[in-house]
């Protein structure tokens, strides 16, 4: 858990204009910066970045947030990953509960990571430069139908056929970073203490693998002839874990948003060939089976993922592993499909022979996850016999247990029950599914609090815009919470408490980020404030005082009416009436004084 104090300090140090400007071309427009929204298609700019609020807002699609929120939304990073990325850029080290390393050792680890990253960048530049003069490699790519534009977009290069070509880039060829990054192999000889170093990649087309920040973290190298292995990947390193990265995701992010889906293929050449042929939304796993982390990364970018595999046995096995990886993340608002091409085709050959429209039709007609799951469960089992139906249920059990409780799971349960001559309730009981949902249940209680209205909304809006005002509210001002409905009182107290905890650093962006982590109750207010020019804190202070006073006046009027309706019987009621009348007079005098102050 990252401390909120660190998040505040981080947001005070980063400049959202610099962060967004890395990914979106921004132009100055008045007090703000404008650009084309990266979250939806548009031809005229409606995306604004406010340097004073440290907030972005799109008037077209409503997207808004802080620098942290932008990285999460744009790059598909998790919250912690986005915080670490921003922190690294401003020289901060994120404190972590499980991180018990001394500061000096942590700094050493960070320096080593930067050295590895720098080595990978230099090697990538070297391989790209070598490709310009490697006619054999260029002819191979041309023969595969690739243009120089696509090769440049994906940063493709060539590793020369020499044992130590990287020595020209790294004069200190013995530096440890070359081995730790996987660029060089350091092999001890069987006899003696002499060591032999040589480049891992030789005479291969090079595919740089980038993380969500665009940094090169590994390489895939394809042999030019019939040598083995056909593809050689970087080993696991502190920068690169195959089970967590997808080739081409960095380059495909915008295309995925525009297409509305991500197309997952089996290899590097599939990705670049599909981009060449009009499908730049393609990515690939890196010589390993699809993992739940891969699926999670993709579903941060889009609500629809389509896996494309060859129709042979190997393709079916890969599809099965992708199915198993997808199940924990499948839900009612996500679409996961499986596309199987004829055994004689890969995506490249299919499009070149049958055309783009034919491939698009294949994508549209891809098999939904539910259908593929049932197909895998049934297999070759004979559903005409009790044994065959029982075996189908047995094979389906681990798959259904991996699915989260949802309407999708219920639909699959119903389909399985029908083909195996059971009931949904029997399937759920037999499979011991968490939170069975086939029986009728009352709808869950509404957890989102009702939106504040009128003066309540005005007060909360002013406090969200200028959280420093919360520190100025005395107990008498806070007493208005007692006159509000319990839900709104709770929201006001939460708002004031969080604002005061931020202290002198309190500002709109930091408070918005803290409120985002607690739920969406305040999101409409945040979106509204983000879309408007910065308001003056002095005027806001007067407006807040007026709104609090009006709320108190309304409470006084209500209580006075209640006393009058009761006939003012008894000394206690009469004394309370005089006390309330006196409070009314005091509030009126305050209002007159403030009007004179404004005048």
Automatic annotation (TrEMBL):
Zinc finger feature spans (CHC2-type): 37-61
EC number: 2.7.7.101
Protein family membership: Belongs to the DnaG primase family.
Purpose: RNA polymerase that catalyzes the synthesis of short RNA molecules used as primers for DNA polymerase during DNA replication.
Occurrences of domain Toprim (ranges): 260-342
Catalyses which reaction(s): ssDNA + n NTP = ssDNA/pppN(pN)n-1 hybrid + (n-1) diphosphate
Domain remarks: Contains an N-terminal zinc-binding domain, a central core domain that contains the primase activity, and a C-terminal DnaB-binding domain.
Cofactor: Zn(2+)
Pfam family, any one: Zn_ribbon_DnaG
Protein name (record): DNA primase
PROSITE patterns recorded: TOPRIM
Keyword Transcription: yes
Organism superkingdom: Bacteria
Cofactor note: Binds 1 zinc ion per monomer.
Keywords assigned by UniProt, alphabetized: DNA replication, DNA-binding, DNA-directed RNA polymerase, Magnesium, Metal-binding, Nucleotidyltransferase, Primosome, Transcription, Transferase, Zinc, Zinc-finger
Quaternary organization: Monomer. Interacts with DnaB.
């Amino acid at each position: 858990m990252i401390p909120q104090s660190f998040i505040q300090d981080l947001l005070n140090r980063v400049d959202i204009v610099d962060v967004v400007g890395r990914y979106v071309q921004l132009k100055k427009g008045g007090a703000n910066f404008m650009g084309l929204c990266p979250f939806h298609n548009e031809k005229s700019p409606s995306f604004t970045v406010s340097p004073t609020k440290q907030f972005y807002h799109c008037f077209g699609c409503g997207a808004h947030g802080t620098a942290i929120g932008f990285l999460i939304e744009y790059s598909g990073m998790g919250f912690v990953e986005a915080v670490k990325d921003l922190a690294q850029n401003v020289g901060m080290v994120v404190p972590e509960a499980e991180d018990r390393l001394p500061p000096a050792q942590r700094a050493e680890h960070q320096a080593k990571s930067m050295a590895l990253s720098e080595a990978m960048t230099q090697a990538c530049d070297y391989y790209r430069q070598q490709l310009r003069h490697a006619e054999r490699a260029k002819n191979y790519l041309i023969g595969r139908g690739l243009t120089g534009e696509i090769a440049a977009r994906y940063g493709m290069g060539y590793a020369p056929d020499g044992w130590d070509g990287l020595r020209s880039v790294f004069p200190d060829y013995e530096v440890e970073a070359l081995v730790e990054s996987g660029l060089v192999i350091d092999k001890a000889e069987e006899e003696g203490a002499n060591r032999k170093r040589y480049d891992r990649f030789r005479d291969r087309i090079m595919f740089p693998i980038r993380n969500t920040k665009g940094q090169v973290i590994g390489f895939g190298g394809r042999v030019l002839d019939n040598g083995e292995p056909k593809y050689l990947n970087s080993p696991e390193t502190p920068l690169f874990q195959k089970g967590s990265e997808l080739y081409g995701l960095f380059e495909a992010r915008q295309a995925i948003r525009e297409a509305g889906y991500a197309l997952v293929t089996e290899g590097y050449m599939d990705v670049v060939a599909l981009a060449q042929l009009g499908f730049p939304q393609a990515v690939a796993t890196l010589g390993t089976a699809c993992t739940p982390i891969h699926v999670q990364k993709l579903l941060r970018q889009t609500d629809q993922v389509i896996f494309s595999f060859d129709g042979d046995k190997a393709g079916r096995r890969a599809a099965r592993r992708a199915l198993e990886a997808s199940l924990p993340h499948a839900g009612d608002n996500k679409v996961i499909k499986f596309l199987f091409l004829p055994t004689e085709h890969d995506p490249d050959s299919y499009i070149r022979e049958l055309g783009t429209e034919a491939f698009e039709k294949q994508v549209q007609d891809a098999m939904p996850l539910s259908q593929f799951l049932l197909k895998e469960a049934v297999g070759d089992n004979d559903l005409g016999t009790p044994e065959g139906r029982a075996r189908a249920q047995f094979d389906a059990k681990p798959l259904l247990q991996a699915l989260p409780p949802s309407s999708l799971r219920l639909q699959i349960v119903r389909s399985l029950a029908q083909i195996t001559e059971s009931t949904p309730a029997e399937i759920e009981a037999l499979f011991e599914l968490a939170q069975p949902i086939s029986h009728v249940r009352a709808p869950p209680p509404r957890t989102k609090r009702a939106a504040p209205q009128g003066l309540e909304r005005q007060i909360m809006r002013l406090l969200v815009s200028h959280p420093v005002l919360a520190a100025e509210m005395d107990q008498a001002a806070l007493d208005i919470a007692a006159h509000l409905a319990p839900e709104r009182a709770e929201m006001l107290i939460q708002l004031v408490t969080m604002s005061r905890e931020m202290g002198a650093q309190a500002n709109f962006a930091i408070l918005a980020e803290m409120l985002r982590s607690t739920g969406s109750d305040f999101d409409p207010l945040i979106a509204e404030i983000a879309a408007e020019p910065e308001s003056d804190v002095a005027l806001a202070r007067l407006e807040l005082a007026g709104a609090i006073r009006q709320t108190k006046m309304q409470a006084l009027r209500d209580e006075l009416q209640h006393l009058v309706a009761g006939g003012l019987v008894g000394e206690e009621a009469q004394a309370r009436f005089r006390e309330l009348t006196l409070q009314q007079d005091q509030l009126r005098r305050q209002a007159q004084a403030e009007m004179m102050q404004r005048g």
